[in-house]
Amino acid sequence: MTRPAAVLTRLALAAAVAWPALAAAAPEYDDPAGLPSGGERGYIRTPPSAFVATPHGGLVSGIIYLNRCTGGCTFTQSSINDATSNQTIIGNVDPGTTMMITEFSHPEAVWTELVDCVRAVYSPYDVEIVTEDPGLVPHHEAVVAGRAADINRPGVLGVAPLDSNTCEPKNNVISFSLANDHGSGAGLTLAQHICWTVAQESAHSFGLDHAFDCTDPLTYMATTQSGGPCGVKFFRNKLLDCGEFESRDCICGGTKQNAHSKLLAVHGPGQTPPPPTINVSGPMDGATVQRGFGVYATAIDPRGVDRIELRINGWKWAEVPGVPLKTSAYVLSVPLEVPDGVMELDVSSCNDLNSCATQRVTVTQGAPCTTADTCLLGQRCDAGRCLWDPPAGEIGDACTFPQACVSNVCADIGGGELACTETCYGGPNDLCPDGFRCTGGTGQQGVCAPPSDEGGCCSAGDLGASRLAVNLGLGALVGLLVVRRRRRRA
Asked: Domain 277-387 is in which class?
């Protein structure tokens, strides 16, 4: 998806004219494709001095106030952002000017659907969505009303400040989702269009950049890269490219961003979403199967199915990516390396937050085992089944094969010794347990390892693809299970 150079130039100049001190501001807006009423959304790069410090014990407020501006509401153009005094830098007007925002003009049913949608998007986090002004309590204010003309920013659907210097989450930030300029279309309701503008704009106050993936509300994209529909948007637990019309380096460092991890680090966990549904259509329970057989299943999830996993006697042997938009059929091929015997097939459908539903089917391939001689390294024979014992190795424990580790990752964490560890991505929120750091560079995959006093240790590149595959045991056939622990609230 491309934007004519003249249009991009116009947008960049608009930011520079409005805020000469912020002339380096990135394009602030969203591609209007798929938004029948037109318009764009995004952020203005803002220095830390424009955010008002509040006494909040080091924690960032989890209150997001959806302000529909009943009867109209006013905001003063200022050099600071402060929801408690209605001061904002967002308007393209002279400092000290009072801007009148017209009240939410859509039917009550749209407002109700919109509020429910915003609550669903933020439900995985310890966030409270309110529709009454919290007053002087630290909070975030999402103005869901008005038109672009009210803030003198023609063609804008939404805009918010982003501290691009430190990328730290802020309190008392005001964002604008100009609801009265929104329309329905592209298979989505009016409430959904407004909801995802609110999600994007409010998230900028927590230090989130734009995502180059249309299943995340931080996107500028109206379709998938293959031209398909985006479906329902949620903050995704995936490393996604940053960018608007093409991938770029992230404002806050690195080349990728995990919106879910960043929000989890700021707010802590909220409600666990329900798992996808799963239905195994073949083979039938009790069937006798031939080596290399396939497992057939269907699955669906409102968030979209992230993946389908196949475990045989407790170990994951196969995984296929999910289709996010509808009930879909999946085929998982059982690797030829799986030893003969009784097999308990656990087929799981998972969303991107690792909420999974599982259905079990028991089959027999060849003859049931009688001793471990016909099983794989580390397996034992139990009631005709070849299986590994439940993993007990914690991070840092010595290992010889990944099935012995709780994380299912056995790798070199320094000094040439294999130990149980976890995969991770380097950066401020690497999610490694305390006492460990991610060996990958910022935004790059590595493993959790003890800090090195020698200015180096292993890295994702040091491990090497072939060595890591050996350490993982059948690495090309076996998916990694990553158990990530959140260290602390930021």
From this structure: mainly beta
**Residues sharing a CB contact under 8 Å with residue 177, sequence separation 6 or more, in sequence order:** 41, 142, 143, 144, 157, 158, 194, 197, 198, 201
CB 362 within 8 A of CB 382: no
**439 in Cβ contact with 280 (< 8 Å):** no
For position 37, what pLDDT does the model report?
A: 33
- CA atoms of 449 and 435, how far apart (whole Å): 8
E strands, 247-384, in order: 247-248, 256-257, 277-282, 288-289, 294-300, 307-312, 315-321, 328-333, 341-350, 356-365, 380-382
31, 33, 36, 42: CA torsion to nearest 10: -20
Beta bridge partners of 185: 188
Q: Please report, to the nearest 10 degrees, the dihedral formed by the alpha carbons of residues 433, 436, 439, 442 taken in order.
A: 60
Q: What is the pTM of this model?
A: 0.70
pLDDT at site 2: 33
Low-confidence residues of the chain, pLDDT below 70? 1-58, 185-187, 324-326, 428-429, 453-490
Q: Are 131 and 66 in contact (CB under 8 A)?
A: yes
435 burial level (CB within 10 Å; 0-12, 13-18, 19+): exposed
Helix, strand, or coil (residue 72): coil
According to the model, what pLDDT value does residue 342 have?
98
Q: How many CB atoms lie within 10 A of CB 402?
A: 27
Cβ distance 87 to 115 under 8 Å? no
Q: Does 283 sit behind a cis peptide bond, omega within 30 degrees of 0 on the bond before it?
A: yes
- What ranges do the domains of the chain cover? 5-267, 277-387, 402-472
Query: Whole-angstrom Cα distance, residue 203 to residue 216?
Result: 11
Q: Are 251 and 162 in contact (CB under 8 A)?
A: yes
Reading phi first (left if > 0) and then psi (alpha if -120 to 50, else beta), residue 306 is in alpha
- Residue 46's pLDDT is 61
pLDDT score of 474:
32
